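Sequence design from tokenized structure. All designs in this work follow the same two-part layout: the structure record, then the generated sequence. An example of the structure record is given first.
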């Protein structure tokens, strides 16, 4: 299928769960990319993943992988605490970068990455893979073309107490190693921050994808029976009103979606647990036609679609189709603002 066409030679840093569930398969299946290399300090984990996914090379040392002239781009799939430093090293080595979300842990560190990206001249993309959900893309197209002025947006992201039963059933068996590199501080030691970074990054980026930059937030947090629930009022720079609901975890099925009111139509979207690889069901009502439409979205592999979009930008030039450095920074700034708003109550 790819015969005669250039392929982006990708090196993946980190052989943990996110790579096993999404990135390895994406690089193997992508129409315009090749799983050229993998890298992990854990020898047993690296050997298992190399045997399973058959990259051309396997590295224990990240700098050695970066020194390989055949590696065109790096996917950074490590713990969040390592994202910024790993991204900077790759850019300084002349590699294009696709970095898992969130871009980083603090506003200061992600702001510090901006000049590194600008100086490198390389393609830099943040892994907000929901932008490659065909349902969300159909909503974005309607917003940009036929909806007219947006009035208001509501969006919700509610993780479920039953999500692990679902993911255990659909994901590959996860291989773990006692030698895996871990952050100096357990990310789950502060659950408020952990849940916000893990899930809030999706919610805030989806809101920005549809309604544009955020000017201000006013957030409340209620914690009960092990659940964290944020209700966030959002003011967008274009005047659109927004309300976001981030709850971890609801005592029901996965509950994620959005509702948008516009001048010439409205949108109602239902999004599924991402590991089902099922496109969002998005109903678009047009006032002009008096009809509702829904794209099928048969290809729901958001991670593979994300990599293909990234590879197209690198290989063919043209604008980034995913989230760039400014989007990644804005997501972290938004989460920091939400947490600050809660503390000030």
């Amino acid at each position: 299928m790819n015969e005669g066409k250039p392929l982006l030679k990708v090196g993946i840093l980190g052989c943990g769960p996110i790579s096993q569930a999404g990135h390895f398969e994406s690089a193997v299946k992508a129409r315009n990319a090749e799983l050229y290399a993998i890298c992990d300090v854990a020898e047993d984990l690296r050997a298992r993943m190399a045997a399973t996914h058959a990259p051309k090379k396997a590295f224990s040392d990240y700098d050695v992988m970066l020194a390989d002239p055949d590696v065109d781009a790096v996917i950074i799939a490590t713990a969040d605490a390592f994202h910024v430093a790993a991204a900077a090293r790759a850019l300084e080595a002349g590699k294009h970068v696709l970095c898992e979300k969130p871009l980083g842990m603090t506003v200061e560190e992600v702001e510090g990455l901006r000049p590194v990206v600008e100086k490198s001249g390389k393609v830099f993309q943040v892994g907000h893979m929901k932008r490659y959900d065909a349902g969300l893309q159909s909503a974005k197209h309607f917003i940009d073309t036929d909806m007219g002025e947006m009035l208001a947006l509501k969006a919700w992201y509610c993780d479920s107490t039953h999500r692990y039963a679902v993911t255990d059933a659909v994901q590959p068996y996860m291989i773990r190693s006692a030698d895996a590199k871990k952050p100096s501080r357990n990310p789950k030691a502060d659950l408020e921050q952990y849940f916000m970074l893990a899930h809030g990054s999706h919610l805030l980026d989806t809101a920005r994808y549809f309604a544009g930059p955020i000017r201000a937030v006013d957030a409340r947090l209620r914690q009960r029976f092990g659940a964290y629930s944020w209700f966030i009022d959002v003011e967008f720079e274009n005047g659109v009103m927004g309300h976001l609901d981030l709850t971890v975890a609801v005592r029901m099925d996965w509950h994620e979606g959005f509702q948008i009111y516009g001048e010439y139509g409205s949108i109602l979207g239902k999004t599924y647990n991402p590991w089902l690889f099922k496109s969002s069901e998005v109903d678009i009502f047009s006032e002009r036609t008096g009809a509702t439409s829904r794209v099928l979205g048969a290809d729901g592999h958001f991670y593979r679609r994300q990599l293909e979009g990234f590879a197209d930008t690198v290989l063919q030039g043209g604008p980034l189709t995913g989230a760039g450095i400014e989007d990644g920074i804005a997501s972290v700034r938004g989460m920091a603002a939400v947490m600050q708003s809660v503390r000030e109550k």
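The two ends are 57 Å apart (CA to CA). We note this feature because it recurs in several other targets discussed in the main text.
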